[in-house]
Design brief:
Elements: H1 13-44, E1 65-73, E2 78-83, E3 88-92, E4 114-117, E5 126-127, E6 135-138, H2 157-197
Parallel strand pairs: 3-5
Antiparallel strand pairs: 1-2, 1-4, 2-3, 4-6
Length: 200
């Protein structure tokens, strides 16, 4: 018997049982109350945004450009882009190319949408993330025509002139050899003819 119960008259049998039930309910109610508080905190406390690991105010990239996404892969995180200058480049909004791997700073792209890209590097493949100020400009945009690259073996005017200048000495040397060969052949024939007419 506890000290605070000393000197008290014993409770009736029914009252003792009722007291035990109330104590048991109070204990269970404590657990229930704790669970409710935890649930309310999970609902009411705002979830941290996806860009929580980014800088508060990212700066524009010195390598920014605009273009239209013509294809995507790796869960829309890697985009093939036709720039407004007509080049076809790749922009990676993730550090990994594994489909089932992701990070909180991965960026996704929409095919057919025009973006202003702010990559962290100056050459394709360009590296991007949600921490940059890359942003969508418009949807349903037709990309500009691709700038044709000079195919292997195709000559520009400058290339043709340079090739002709390089080949000129060889043409001159070849012509000189042909003339010399013809002259030598004619001389040998003349010498044989003269020898055949000599009498003893």
């Amino acid at each position: 018997m506890r000290d605070d119960e000393a000197g008290r008259p014993p409770l009736p049998r029914g009252a003792e049982r009722y007291r035990g039930v109330m104590i048991d309910l109070a204990r269970r109610g404590g657990w229930l109350l704790g669970g409710l508080v935890t649930l309310l905190m999970a609902i009411l406390v705002p979830i941290a945004p996806a860009d929580a690991s980014c800088a508060a105010s990212p700066a524009p990239s010195p390598h920014r450009f605009t273009g239209v996404v013509i294809a995507t892969r790796s869960l829309d995180r890697i985009a093939t882009v036709r720039t407004d200058a007509g080049a076809t480049v790749e922009v990676r909004g993730t550090m990994t190319t594994v489909d089932n791997a992701a990070s909180s700073v991965d960026r996704t792209y929409e095919p057919g949408a025009r973006y202003e890209f702010h990559p962290s590097n100056d050459a394709s493949p360009f590296q991007d993330s949600i921490c940059s100020v890359t942003h969508l400009i418009a949807r349903g945009v037709t990309p500009v025509a691709q700038v044709p690259s000079v195919a292997a073996g195709a000559d520009t005017a400058a290339d043709g002139d340079a090739r002709r200048r390089r080949s000129a000495p060889w043409w001159a040397l070849g012509s000189a050899l042909v003339v010399a060969t013809v002259a030598a052949t004619g001389w040998r024939r003349g010498a044989r003819s003269s020898g055949g007419k000599r009498t003893v």
